[in-house]
Design a protein that fits this description.
With about 30 residues, the protein is mostly helical. Helix content is about 35%, strand content about 0%. The chain has one domain. It has 1 helix and no strands. It is globular and about 20 Å long.
Amino acid sequence: VIVPMHNKDIPSGTLYAILKQAGLNKDEI
């Protein structure tokens, strides 16, 4: 899973969904 560095350009919900697919959670960001 590739997470773009320009996180401000994507909704936080979308970013969180990407992180969940990567096996991460918001505490690991």
